[in-house]
Amino acid sequence: MSSLNNLSSWKEIGNHSNKISQKSLNEIFKEDKDRFNKFSIQEKDLLLDFSKNHIDNKMMKLFSQLLVDIDLKGKIHDLFNGEKINTSENRSVLHFLLRGSYTSKTKELYENDVKKGLDKLKLFSKKFQNGELKGYSGKIIKNVINIGIGGSDLGPKMICEALKYYSNRSVNNYFISNVDPSNLSEVLLNVDPKESIFIISSKSFGTIETLKNANVCKNWFYNQSKNSESLKKHFFGVTANTKRAKEFGIEENNIFPIWDWVGGRYSLWSSVGLPIILKIGFENFEMLLNGANEIDNHFREQPFNNNIPVVLGCLGILYNNFHNCETHAIFPYDDYLKYLPMYLQQADMESNGKNISKNSSEVNYNTGPIIWGDVGTNGQHSFFQLIHQGTKKIPCDFIGFVNSNNEKEELHEILLSNMIGQTMALMKGKNGAEVEKELGNKNKYNNYDILKNSKIFKGNKPSNTLLFNKLTPYNLGRLIAIYEHKIFVQGSIWNINSFDQWGVELGKVLSDEVYNKLKNKDKSYIDNSTKGQLDFIEKFRQ
Ligand code: F6P
Q1: Sign of the dihedral through C-alpha 466, 471, 477, 478
Q2: Beta bridge mates, 134
Q3: Among 91, 152, 157, 510, which residue has the most ligand 1 atoms within 8 Å of its CB, making it the best to mutate?
Q4: Which residue out of 108, 508, 513, 538 is catalytically annotated?
Q5: How far apart are CA 446 and CA 449, in angstroms?
Q6: Which member of 350, 354, 428, 461 is catalytic?
Q7: Nearest one of 160, 163, 164, 165 to 175, comparing CA atoms
Q8: Fewest beta carbons within 10 Å, which of 142, 229, 392, 474?
Q9: Residue nearest to atom 6 of ligand 1 (CA)
């Protein structure tokens, strides 16, 4: 494929974007009373309203042409058919098989293995649920401690929190990810080893943070139980590297497999989801998979102009590449989704934070945006100020649920009204005349001009709204799969490999080097700043 910049559809998107940006969102809404119908997608009880964006019919047509030019159809086919699209690691990308999204080719090759893996998880979760899983002292297990980082932490942690309402409240989930001793200490302080299991979750079983934490936990556990045999009842592994997990001391039967074709940040659907299964039960986990499967089918089958991940992907490209937006904000209006922005940071930024194209040349356009966000309404009372009146344009996704899992008087109506009110305010803003009217008689103020100008909102800020019926396992599966495929669409347009992560390697290598220097008090061959820091640590380290 020739460079994106040379495609006429790409250039035309740029030209047309300049043209339509001359009109405000407010103005285009006044001109077109049917805008919501034109620019929204309803998939049963799920709505995407993307009408508050700087787009028109022509823009959507230009994006359709771009998707033909980059052969998105062919790329989706290759993805689902297991072609080795992760070219730098020579791997297929097939995590969606775990939610039953097969082609005839992948079904034949992988279905049996996937089923075996799921059956093992199901059996284990039943034993756990029935109280058959007992610790070395005969006590029932109630603490599930996950040791993992990145994709082996963020997905399970986010979902366990998100689906707390559907969970077994007597099961306590803990997550040890950081190599910071404080993370681990705060968990171990709270648990009785007799009632706890450790799940060491690492696709590679080679991630230093995870292995170091696992070792400390193993020693802590041994010091408490004084019996090495008891490890068998309390230590479990989730990995694609059974050999290393066994060397660590985990029983073969306690190892839950994942496969080479499940990327870390896409792995919550696999055995990495074991903490989720133990918290919400296997049936609810299956609902999560089913919801994601529905979106896989939607993504594969719907025409692009009615395809939620495709539309979201294109809108993101519009702002990232043609409006020079550096960031993209995600605001779930549901407290249970407090870890969603953090989860999506890894999913998106580790996937599309790349500067080398699939042709192995450096790209000459912007790729992945900075992803950030928090739950509403909390964000409204902190950083929303900058979105409304700062100097930066920040496209936002608002995620809401028509019904709450916990209806209490009218709190949910207030929450929803806040969400919708924000999208309106971002779009409409408030002009000088409106502020003047609101302030009334000028003479009442000794600071009229500054007050008036400070109260003006320029508006014209774009946003998407995703509305689901309720936060259920099924709908959460849909939500995550929407973002996964959006990321794929964007990576396909930018012609980058969304499935490797070489950018994290250098830091790992250098931290090993620094660690050795720190240990050996060796300060040779390091830059002056690093030497200064090591000297300082040496002086004050007790
Ligand atoms: O360092 C980045 C990374 O490879 C992530 O992509 C991954 O999710 C995480 O580390 C953990 O890897 P593993 O599951 O192999 O321990």
Answers
A1: negative
A2: 140
A3: 152
A4: 508
A5: 9
A6: 350
A7: 160
A8: 229
A9: 264
Name residues contacting ligand 1 (CB within 6 A): 149-152, 202-204, 207, 210, 264-265, 350, 501, 504
- CA–CA gap between residue 207 and residue 501 (Å, rounded): 14
Those residues with Cβ within 8 angstroms of residue 49's Cβ, 6 or more apart along the chain or in another chain: 36, 39, 40, 464, 465, 467
pLDDT at 210: 96
Query: What digits encode the pLDDT tens for the residues 22-79?
Result: 999 999 999 999 999 999 999 999 999 999 999 999 999 999 999 999 999 999 999 9
Residues of the chain with pLDDT under 70: 1-2
From the candidates 44, 381, 408, 539, which is the catalytic residue? Answer: 381
* Angle, vertex CA 337, rays to CA 129 and CA 388, nearest 5: 180
3-state secondary structure of 434: helix
Pairing state between β 196-201 and 255-257? unpaired
Q: How far is CA 235 from CA 108, 136, 231, 238, in A?
A: 33, 11, 6, 10
The 3-state DSSP class for residue 86 equals strand
Q: What is the pLDDT of residue 525?
A: 76
CA of 150 to the centre of ligand 1 (A): 5
542/531 Cα distance (integer angstroms): 19
- Residue identifier of the C-alpha nearest atom 14 of ligand 1: 202
Atom of ligand 1 nearest to the CA of 272: 14
* Residue with CA nearest ligand 1 atom 8: 151
CA of 210 from ligand 1 middle (Å) equals 10
Ligand 1 centroid–CA 221 distance in Å is 25
Q: 479: closest CA among 332, 367, 381? A: 332
* C-alpha 476 to ligand 1 mean position (Å): 23
**What is the CA(264)–ligand 1 centre distance, in A?**
6
235 CA to centre of ligand 1 in angstroms: 20
Query: What is the rounded CA–CA span in Å between residue 479 and residue 155?
Result: 13
d(CA 79, CA 96): 10
Q: Please write the tens of the pLDDT for every residue from 279-314.
A: 999 999 999 999 999 999 999 999 999 999 999 999
Q: Helix (H, G, I), strand (E, B), or coil: what is residue 129?
A: helix
Q: What is the pLDDT of residue 101?
A: 98
pLDDT at 2: 54
Question: Rounded to an integer, what distance in angstroms lies between the CA atom of residue 538 and that of residue 542?
Answer: 9
Q: Which long-range contacts (CB under 8 A, 24 or more apart) does 175-183 make?
A: 175/145, 175/146, 175/148, 175/275, 176/145, 176/146, 176/147, 176/213, 176/217, 177/147, 177/148, 177/149, 177/150, 177/153, 177/209, 177/213, 178/149, 178/209, 179/208, 179/209, 179/212, 179/213, 181/216, 183/213
Phi/psi of residue 440, nearest 5 degrees: 75, -145
Pocket perturbation via mutation, ligand 1, pick of 153, 207, 212 by most ligand atoms within 8 A of CB:
207
Predicted TM-score of the model (pTM): 0.97
Active site residue 350: yes
In this predicted structure, what is the pLDDT of residue 542? 86
126 part of the active site: no
Q: Is 508 a catalytic residue?
A: yes
